[in-house]
From TrEMBL:
Its main location: membrane. It is a single-pass type II membrane protein. Keywords: Cell inner membrane, Cell membrane, Cytochrome c-type biogenesis, Heme, Iron, Membrane, Metal-binding, Signal-anchor, Transmembrane, Transmembrane helix. Heme binds at H123, Y127. This is Cytochrome c-type biogenesis protein CcmE. It is found in: Cell inner membrane; Cell membrane. Heme chaperone required for the biogenesis of c-type cytochromes. Transiently binds heme delivered by CcmC and transfers the heme to apo-cytochromes in a process facilitated by CcmF and CcmH. It comes from the Bacteria.
Amino acid sequence: MNPKRKQRLIIVLGVLAAVGLSTALMMFALKENINLFFTPTEIAEGKAPLERRIRVGGLVVPGSVKRGEDLQVTFDLTDNAEQITVRFSGILPDLFREGQGIIANGKLIGGTLVEADEVLAKHDENYVPPEVQEALEKAGHPKKEKS
């Protein structure tokens, strides 16, 4: 092998190694920031990872909202098949109420307890987040019709 060819081969291998290393580092960084959506049924079945950031969606169970000290709120969330508890410390959205669809972002810290750091509520009386609607349909509830 002549010296020029050997030099080119070393350069190409170096570039490939650098691209591979940067791709691996990006994938590692992205893995930490991904938050997957889970339904209350999937959480109750143990499919959601503990102590990792997740999104959970469902309907707020009527009569389950309990307010504590320092803006602490606890409420139950259901997909009409299973029920989980969400604990949130902060100001709830103005549109938050019992019986409506919400999505909570946070960590699963127990079997069915989610410590939320963000609660998102629907923006009008007909809207249900797509993930929540899909979960409700899987649980046997019909799709809401838009009026």
